[in-house]
Amino acid sequence: MAIRLDTAAADFEARFRDLLAMKREVSEDVDQAVRAIVRAVREQGDAALIELSKKFDRVDLDKLGIRISAAEIAAARASVDAETYAALELARDRIRSHHERQRPKDDRYTDALGVELGSKWTAVQSVGLYVPGGTASYPSSVLMNAVPAKVAGVGRIVMVVPSPDGKLNPLVLAAAELAGVDEIYRIGGAQAVAALAYGTETIAPVAKIVGPGNAYVAAAKRQVFGQVGIDMIAGPSEVLVVADAANDPDWIAADLLAQAEHDTAAQSILITDSPELAAEVEKAVERQLATLPRAETARASWRDFGAIILVGDLAESVALADRIAAEHLELAVEDPEPLFAAVTNAGAVFLGRYTPEVIGDYVGGSNHVLPTARSARFSSGLGVLDFMKRTSLLKLGPDQLRALAPAAMTLAKAEGLDAHGRSVGIRLNL
Amino acid sequence: MAIRLDTAAADFEARFRDLLAMKREVSEDVDQAVRAIVRAVREQGDAALIELSKKFDRVDLDKLGIRISAAEIAAARASVDAETYAALELARDRIRSHHERQRPKDDRYTDALGVELGSKWTAVQSVGLYVPGGTASYPSSVLMNAVPAKVAGVGRIVMVVPSPDGKLNPLVLAAAELAGVDEIYRIGGAQAVAALAYGTETIAPVAKIVGPGNAYVAAAKRQVFGQVGIDMIAGPSEVLVVADAANDPDWIAADLLAQAEHDTAAQSILITDSPELAAEVEKAVERQLATLPRAETARASWRDFGAIILVGDLAESVALADRIAAEHLELAVEDPEPLFAAVTNAGAVFLGRYTPEVIGDYVGGSNHVLPTARSARFSSGLGVLDFMKRTSLLKLGPDQLRALAPAAMTLAKAEGLDAHGRSVGIRLNL
To answer: In chain B, positions 38-77, which contact chain A (CB-CB < 8 Å)?
Structure first.
């Protein structure tokens, strides 16, 4: 039974604040253990990877090799049925087309003084992609991380994926190949992150590490940050569905459960102006749970973190959605455009009744790596820009330097930085 | 005496690696102390700010008020001499013009299937700007942080600046006013960061915190990350100067010292193909140090971290510059364009003999908040995009959903996510 809120209730603001402040993740303190693992990999390289993989994944990399061979990848691809392979290809192509539009343009111009200014964008030279093992080993996530890197022009894309008990998901290898990943290593955990950051005899270090992982992986990414760049630390998934009375409660329930089945810490929230729809959706959720293979997970998520917020008017949902700042926002209303135009904090918005969030997970083309835990207030989903960096340029001749020198020297003096002033003045005999 | 390297020497690669690996910052372990301060501010709000400011800044905020009044700001502005004020205005205007070109464009389009896709950019709703007190209280940095936020459209820009012994730099207040800062509070340290992140009775919380600070401020920013966004953690400043034989050694020496005077941990590196220039620059550095007010700082920086790298051909400097990934790169050569085109890892590039890096510090128009400590390999200088976030959109009708449903359902099945498949199938009776 999800939480029920009503904006008309006297205690709404307090209860809504509680909803926003809900801690959905227990942050395990694994920093010490991770520190030791990172140190071992830095000091012993491959030997540490072999030892730690024996310990944690029960796999002998001495025998299998740290790197996954071209033959293994080809075998994995061959084992994927044609329908699934075609679906991965379609997803890859749509993600690529969409992300190609995100490529930034260089800028160079001359201002009224004759000063040349500009920005040059270049790709990060090498990127490491972490892919979890076991049940969270999603081929779709491989595409969502690797394709934008490829579009950005990253020259070397390295993937790491653990193989617990020697098992690898062939779909993940097939997706990596489809996305253009250059090297794949069968390692995981903090040791894989350390290997990507510092390198070993077998693995050359990368400049940036992306991709989701467990508490150990997240802690390792935080620890190596600075040595390399990292992406955001992803939390459990969320959906906010804004729905008017004219929805089929079963459709909305299915969307809420699609989010809830990910993780017991996932969160599904419905905002509606219809008490009837709210009641029907709750019933439909229960009905659908009865036949859901991952019902246990979904039920716990819905029970602990699910919420239905009743509003007097759907226009109220804009301010609420901006405060919730959901990773995914569905606008299941007759005309979603005004709401879409008004909302500012959301990772991705899905407009209209025929755009379930799940399309965005797989084949919409937009990225499914999105800001969680209200971070859409200040950050964006993964994209091409995450794999590029901007270098600014300035170019002056003697005339331009003469024009700007007085102000620069005045400010240098005001800041007490005499060598700064001299660096300008010496060129003009000032 | 700086380090001397020669790419022709047998031990070059080893010594160059040592140069890259040099630790220039002692990372103070202040995490525990900062944790206590953040907790105090969260629990006691203004009262904690008042108590901690008494303790650390020797200032009574109960009497002065936490917020700096409009009258104080006006008085500060009036106290600034006309020349300096005009220089700040020029800097502000040039920074604004340049950054206006960085405003991203929304994108919305319909693909061949009729699916609507796109990206919408919106400003972060509120931003906090940390400004250090004392000698590192730079009005130029206020402009460099606040103006891009303003250009991005941030609705509320809040500045915090400590006032040790009650002292405030009037230039910093004047710059804040010029940049359009909305609120200024006389608080600093970890307590100011906590107040911005969590809010107090007087200060409403912000969504993102930017700006440089000491070890306590940096640790506090790391701790509140997630609750709010943060910018990069800035390290000590760096310049790499690539110079051919035809340079005036005094100009190059002045540029190296302009960087070195910032901080004993700053780093100035010269790459040249001329042993004569190298020798003359070293002499010029010593000569100029004799008359430099901040000579002690600059001498320590040059002695401990300065370096001169002799190359056989300046074309070698591209690969070295990419590995150094300097915050600032000066190309003091006859034709800087081919080198500029080839280099990929640098925060900002200054082209030609008449573009000293100092122009970029103040009035060039580009941003002086740039990636340090080799992070230009994976990150960019501060810009308008740091104050905005992108929301993706997807919009399908029944026909588009029908076209994409099979692939989405196939992938959902492959990933074992049945509720995902249902969320699509239920809309089409599949």
So the answer is: none
